[in-house]
Amino acid sequence: MRILFIADAFAAAGRRIIEERVPAVRRERGIDFVIANAENVADGVGITSRIARKLFAAGVDVITLGNHAYRQREVYPYLDEEERILRPANYPDSAPGHGTCVAEAADGTRVAVINLIGSLFLDAAVSPFAVAERMVDAARAQAPVVVVDFHAEATSEKVAMGRLLAGKATAVLGTHTHIQTNDATVLPGGTAYITDAGMTGPHDSVIGVRTDLVLRRFATQLPIRFEPAEGDVRIEGAIFECDGDGRATAMESFRLLDNR
Ligand SMILES: [Fe+2]
Ligand SMILES: [Fe+2]
């Protein structure tokens, strides 16, 4: 089966290009399952239930989040109710929502998805390295395909997580930096891996935000309110394939420019 992973969807531009282009990508590339990190889809910070429903309607099967998961209060009950939207699994148990789910792909295969957050510069309640193997084993008991979105700042943390889960998870996909790395590969044992899958949204920006506002904040240290940029909208992410046992057999980074 073939899975499309969409990296950090950013603001209305990110949501729009997913709605407009993902149905065709699904058809043309023979995609069986779509996972989208959407932690920035509500104006750059968090997600709302209304936007999540739009992403599901556009063909996204599972939504993952990250450090911005709780920026929109409205979404808290929805995170508890909706099985297919995940916040980091290594957040406290008492926090809204859940961090793992199992969903069914177009071809009937069960796919488990796990959202983990890194320790460096982010508020992991528990080290992702303390729980990742156990969580992947538990997921494997429920589904042959196990995909991990590892939302982390440091390349070292992400590479280490890929190595830890090589041969155990079907894929370990890095998110959060919004800059796609050039290291998509299949690790020994059949684990698709990329250090960072990139960002789905406006790339004429500083990782999604209007360049002038970011430069003014860096130059003045003043608390300037950030706004999403608009130009050079892209989908970024990865496409990988796996066999019936959930071993990855092919992996490539994915980028689609908005060429209207
Ligand atoms: Fe992000
Ligand atoms: Fe993030």
Amino- and carboxy-terminal Cα gap:
30 Å
CATH topology: Purple Acid Phosphatase, chain A, domain 2
> What value does the Rg take, in angstroms?
17 Å
> Under the CATH scheme, which class?
Alpha Beta
Overall mean pLDDT stands at 97
List unreliable stretches of 5+ residues.
none
Helix tally equals: 6
Bound molecules: fe (ii) ion
Q: What overall geometry do the principal axes of the alpha carbons give?
A: globular
The fourth-level CATH homologous superfamily is Metallo-dependent phosphatases
Category from helices, strands and their pairing: alpha/beta
Provide the domain count.
1
The overall strand count is: 13
Secondary-structure map with pairings?
Layout: E1 2-6, H1 11-28, E2 33-37, H2 49-57, E3 62-64, H3 76-81, E4 85-86, E5 100-104, E6 110-117, H4 128-140, E7 145-151, H5 155-165, E8 171-175, E9 185-187, E10 191-194, E11 201-202, H6 211-220, E12 233-242, E13 248-257
Parallel strand pairs: 1-2, 2-3, 3-4, 6-7, 7-8, 8-10
Antiparallel strand pairs: 1-12, 5-6, 9-10, 11-12, 12-13
Bound molecules: fe (ii) ion (2 copies).
Provide structural commentary.
With 260 residues, the chain is an alpha/beta fold. The chain has one domain: Metallo-dependent phosphatases (Purple Acid Phosphatase, chain A, domain 2). Helices cover 26% and strands 27% of the residues. The protein is built from six helices and 13 strands. Strands 1, 2, 3, 4, 11, 12 and 13 form a seven-stranded mixed beta sheet that branches. The radius of gyration is 17 Å and the shape is globular. Residues 39, 66-68, 151, 176 line the site of one fe (ii) ion (FE2).
